[in-house]
Amino acid sequence: MVQLQVFFFPIMAHGHMIPILDMAKLFASRGVHSTIITTPLNAPAFAKGVQKSNDSGFQMSIKILKFPKVDGLPEDCENIDQIPSPAMLPLFLAATWMLKEQLEQLLQECHPNCLVADLFFPWATDSAARFNIPRLIFYGSSFFASCAEEQVRLHRPFKNLTNASDEFFVPNLPHKVKLFSSQIPPFLREERETEFAKMLTEAFESESRSYGTIVNSFYELEPNYADYYRNVLNRRAWHIGPLSLCNRSFEEKVQRGKQAAITEDECLTWLNSKSPNSVVYICFGSVGKFPSKQLHEIAMGLEASEQQFIWVVMKGTDDNEPEDWMPEEFEERMIGKGLIIRGWAPQVLILDHKAIGGFVTHCGWNSTLEGIAAGVPMVTWPLGAEQFYNEKLITDVLHIGVPVGAKEWGVMVGGGNIKRDAVETAVRGILVGEEAEDRRNRCKGLKEMAKKAIEQGGSSYSDLNALIQELSL
Asked: Which among 20, 69, 142, 376 is least surrounded, fewest beta carbons within 10 Å?
């Protein structure tokens, strides 16, 4: 029998690259030859995972496309995480469209059985079709967010609202979902279609023409929306997550993503000294950043909550920039009580630790699903993208989280208007009291469901098997 070959092509952003690597490893573990397509400066992020998979007797490889030089983008800027300003995001995405010719050359040479390409490469559907190769889409979001986003785009229920504080219901969903007008992206609210909005329109339009979508989720988590996506929106989809659970060994959890800014020994020694469910973990993803005044409010709120914490603070573009946000002698007062990590943290390793009792998150889908797989309740603090939809899944559908009160959509940067009292209340609410215990019990149930989903006979295990069989025909 000829071995199945699948190409995986993520957008150059760690929030997309990390789950794609997990996905490629998962396919490889089922006998597929998995090849990751990326650019020179992003290749090292995949190298260890690919090597470890090959050492385990599976087959994985990396193919390199040269990233185009574009006026307006900094030299060697090959990842969204490296963009100095959110205003450069459309320029970066436009640059990725220039990879089309190189990808087509690769497809012609290798002719894989399938191309799994990021939603943000809408042109990949036509490129794959040129060589009679099925193209699967990877969006990196939940069924719930995809369904809600589709209804908001189609029906524009916010169009007659005049104030940012006005609320509306997302139509036609199995649950009542209410949003503020300010939580909708500006490019959707504007009458004139921007270049960025045109790109997104093309991306969603290519979804309907593709072979189908791979979803990093599991059926038991959002059954109404998995069914809605397939039966109402009439989209083909396979749920194969949580992808993070394919990292079973200590080494895999430590090496996931970028180089951590803290050693695993230092991190675990600190956590091992804490009681179960006594520490809140705070992290806003790989690109989420706040102005100094918001960081100051978070610090003051954490101190007032009197709870123990691990707080990941992403550095700005200048590592020598003074930390003018930090309250005077804050770190000294927090010795033994709070651990600040400046830079990348081994998130799955931390969330899986028994000391972690809560997670303050930006509601990116990777983080959300990692929190669910670890059985950890959440404080929701969405910043942009589809994160406000994910917040509603966490708080209103699953009832495993507390909103901090974020109401303003942004790109990669938080607005900075959440006060210390709200931080204090949310952190205490996720760790202390009867309601916190109820949420924790619900999270434990979801954690067990997530584990069963990826085991032999589970919903995600079976969906991946069905997809591989279909591609093999």
From this structure: 69
Q: Which residues are catalytic?
A: 16, 118
Tokens 């009679």 belong to 132
87-138 pLDDT per residue, tens: 888 889 889 999 999 999 999 999 999 999 999 999 999 999 999 999 999 9
Looking at the domain that runs over 260-450, which CATH code has it been given?
3.40.50.2000
Domain ranges of the chain: 5-245+456-472, 260-450
User: Is residue 227 a contact partner of residue 256, using CB atoms and an 8 Å limit?
Assistant: no
Fold agreement between 5-245+456-472 and 260-450: yes
| pTM to 2 decimal places | 0.93
Contact 216, 241 (CB under 8 A): yes
Asked if 23 and 8 touch (Cβ cutoff 8 Å), the reply is yes
Tens digits of residue pLDDT in 293-333 = 899 999 999 999 999 999 999 755 444 555 678 898 898 99
Q: What is the 3-state secondary structure (H, E, C) of the chain?
A: CCCCEEEEECCCCHHHHHHHHHHHHHHHHCCCEEEEEECCCCCHHHHHHHHHHHHCCCCEEEEECCCCCCCCCCCCCCCHHHCCCHHHHHHHHHHHHHHHHHHHHHHHHHCCCEEEEECCCCCHHHHHHHCCCCEEEECCCCHHHHHHHHHHHHHCCCCCCCCCCCEEECCCCCCCCEEEHHHCCHHHHCCCCCHHHHHHHHHHHHHHHCCEEEECCCCCCCHHHHHHHHHHCCCCEEECCCHHHHCCCHHHHHHCCCCCCCCHHHHHHHHHCCCCCCEEEEECCCCCECCHHHHHHHHHHHHHHCCEEEEEECCCCCCCCCCCCCCCCHHHHCCCCEEEEECCCCHHHHHCCCCEEEEEECCCHHHHHHHHHHCCCEEECCCCCCHHHHHHHHHHHCCCEEECCCCCCCCCECCCCCCHHHHHHHHHHHHCCHHHHHHHHHHHHHHHHHHHHHCCCCHHHHHHHHHHHHHHC
CATH entry, 5-245+456-472, from 3.40.50.2000, 3.40.50.720, 3.30.1700.10, 1.10.3720.10? 3.40.50.2000
